[in-house]
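Input set for joint prediction.
Command: fold jointly, output tokens.
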Amino acid sequence: MNLYEKTAYDAAMALEKKEVTSVELVESVLGRISEVEKNVKGFIHLIERETILEEAREIDRLRAKGQRSSILAGVPMALKDNMCTMGIPTTCASRILEDYRPPYNAHVTEKLQQAGTVLIGKANMDEFAMGSSTENSAFYPTHNPWDTNRVPGGSSGGSAALVAADEVFFSLGSDTGGSVRQPASLCGVVGLKPTYGLVSRYGLIAFASSLDQIGPLTKDVRDCAMVLEIIAGNDSRDSTSVPREKESYSSYLGRDIKGFKVAMPKEYFQEGIEEAVRESVMNAVVLCIKLGVEVEEVSMPHTSYALPCYYLVGTAEASSNLARYDGVQYGFRAPDQDNLIELYLKTRSQGFGSEVKRRIMLGTYALSSGYYDAYYLNSLKARTLIRQDFENVFQNYDLIITPTSPSPAFVRGERLDDPLTMYLSDIYTTTANLAGVPAISIPCGLADGLPVGLQIIGRPFDEGRMLQFCFALEKMLGFKGLKPKISADGVLKDVS
Amino acid sequence: MNVSKKEVEHVAALARLALSEEEKILYTDQFNVILEYIHRLNELNLENIDPMTHVQQLRNVLRKDIAKGSEKELVVRILEESPGKEKEKGFFSVPPVIEGFEMEE
Amino acid sequence: MSPEYEVVIGLEVHVELLTESKIFCSCPNRFGEAPNTNVCPVCLGLPGSLPVFNESVLELAVRASLALNCTVSSYSKFDRKNYFYPDLPKAYQVSQYDFPLAKEGFLDLLKDGRSIRKVRIERLHLEEDAGKLIHDQKESISYVDYNRCGVPLVEIVTAPDLRSPGEAHLFLDWLKKILLYTGVSDCKMEEGSLRCDANISLRPSGTETLGRKVEIKNMNSFRAVQKGLEYEVIRQKQILRAGGRVAMETRRWDEEKGVTAEMRGKEEAHDYRYFPEPDLPPLMLDENFLSRMKGELPELPEKRYLRFMESYGLSPYQAEIITSSKNLADFFEDTLLHYPHSQKVSNWLTGELFGLLKTSVKEIDDIPLTPLHLGELLKILDEGTLSSTLAKEVLEESFLSGKLPREIVQEKGLLQISGEKELLLIVEDVINNYPAAVKDYSDGNKKAVGFLVGQAMKQTRGQANPQVITELFKKRLGK
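tokens >
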């Protein structure tokens, strides 16, 4: 087994037992990257080899002295390119921030740095996290390691593909309407969107502030728990970060899940779901029952309103969050402008891609005078109803089980001309963002050789028990150990 | 409720985006498809429902009033990276703002 | 004012709050620093930065609300006001829209000791200030300084209750006093820490419907507010008299030319797309907090002004001057603890002491002279052992050195000489030295005694009691 194939936990254990060094882990993933990255295209920016190695050496030195800052010290990872890294390009996969190097670190960057993890590079994404396929990157689309003709999902497609292709041991993504969970599902990895307020958004370049959360993308559930432990926790620089006691998520793993009550909302198995996905998820449900879990069908009547609600709330906030990219202070400024209005118009029109423009305009429209009540205000009210659906279910159930995405990875280009169909990729994931509750996607099977993910949604701040449940289920599902072809034989079906 | 090309133009102006003729037509069409989908919200009876402005129950999140000197290096770096011409004087700069000139929205 | 039209004025006042740090970040809230030095990722609106609300801003704004008799909302929230301008780095201003911090207050306009009008305050809300743009016409470039970005502001909006430009001026005078008393702001219009826009319309006297209003901007002093409005009254009157219609527009006061002029193409199409600020949780204030804040309020200037007239028998003019600042009013009342005659304290305070403050360009609270000093001086005066001329010298000495008056009087031996024996020697001396004046007096020019008294004063360095010595001269030379 190659080192890069290990989970983050196994890599950490090997470091702990002094079987490997951080330098060796870095060398291993860098080798892997030089082998497969040209076909995955998961990175936007790779940090210089020597810089990474120097960092790994330092961590090895400290470890040799018995000082290690966390269990994951020395383990290589990647950050989605919308998380600020001081002096290192942070582009949001947009022309408008193409040369932007932030003068400060995001909270999560700091946390991972303090934990001694080693940043390998910045992961590709849909521009400003708007998209479900990573095709909206201004630079190049990322390919799904399971089938390079297909998309890895999005918007954290780079983060998911890098983990699936064993180019890093774990990564962080951001999830506004499913942007961690959907690519996790399409790439066959674990992706968690924490409760809104659990992970600080300080230094995460905002898409929709009331929905955005940062979460881990990992090879398995245990890794997810470990990474979450590092990044979770109150931060006084984010006013929406909730003050709470630190939790040890790993301590939940391995506990019995017998007697858990799980709801299966029928609305998630109706609109547009592919048969293979339904089967895969239903198999998992059967396994749950075998594990002594009570599964019952419930109704969450406002589910079908989540996506329209999401597209109003999300775009409205985005239209405001992205107004600052105007060429005045940082980032791209269009050449040849004689006055201020021209500076604005040219910079923004040349700097943003078409999906970003579409959403900015949709959001501007929803907030504009005469339409505010009909669109934006109604979406806030619908959001209340969607949240109530969750509150009602959680009165009687511990968790909710649903598919993550209505279909496995689709072919690149297939949905590009049809924004609405693309938006429907998020149909099962936006609800958790709107309600602010935690949700995780874990791989539950293959459909035609492509991974299928199932989603577990929990009560606010109940990540511990969600992970406990997923850890138990993961063992039974038998997906663990399955790797995309790109890693099995090192040869690609397609190198287009 | 149908969106006209003129409304798309107005919204683009509000958002400071210049659109080509083709883009205007394309966005108008796509807006109508997306908005038709969004209109399913109208099926809901929202009359006595409170709008949700914040998803959690946080209130009065306050910071102590303590001033920290700004980090000089940080400001220098930001200025250096800024696209304007006059940064050596410590300013950001933009092409002339014509007093009172406002864009037609 | 001609009775045919009634003037209707409402004001929008922006006040910068006197905090250590900015509203949403820890940058210093300071005026007059080198450009772009008091900035950080948050107030520069860098991607990924987030706001955290300053506790003092809340307290000062609540204090202002209570001082203006407003109802402080138990629930209020922040909203984003979206517009593009280079001085606004996020392209939105964090403000408050449909749930302001406070509303429905009033300010009692007092003049000549009585209330002439209750001006309603419609709302008071929190917001962040924008940066500054400097236009360089020659270089055809505009410079941006973000130091002021994120300085905390409250916006105070009055109902259209003011009825003349003079009332607008008076309103601002009182507002400033209230904000200074409560320590909410330093209200320095020249530094932009208080800024005022005005809405003005005219309507036929006796009617109730509001006329078409004009907004006036760029008035940089209270006087300019009055001047601008006065100009606008005349301009609108002329239009209306000629049967015209006043255009609803924003006009700019041109201080140099003394006119208002239309600002091109503003306002008509503005669509700020307000929506709740997702990065900031709402504010919920309970009764405990509000009653604590109420308890901390000082006595407000209107109340003090009326009380000073009533309790101390001051004239409206004196009361107004003495209550013009809290420190001054405190000084007055503290002096009364040492010396109870309010009229005399008032005279010395507004006369001699004001003169000294003026020439030294100092405020009452940054001089070494305290109420104890003034009280002691007035006591010595009452004892009749110090001439008022010398008392003024003592005051000045005290003002500069902080020495107590008794100490100065003793050190310099300034006590008045009233003893007849002692003074008679001096009288004899002067008579011997100035025979010509003595002859003059004897010849019937009674005024010559003044010269002799003057010489005696000179000889005693002012210590001779002038009444006593005059009598002695008259007695000695024969009436």
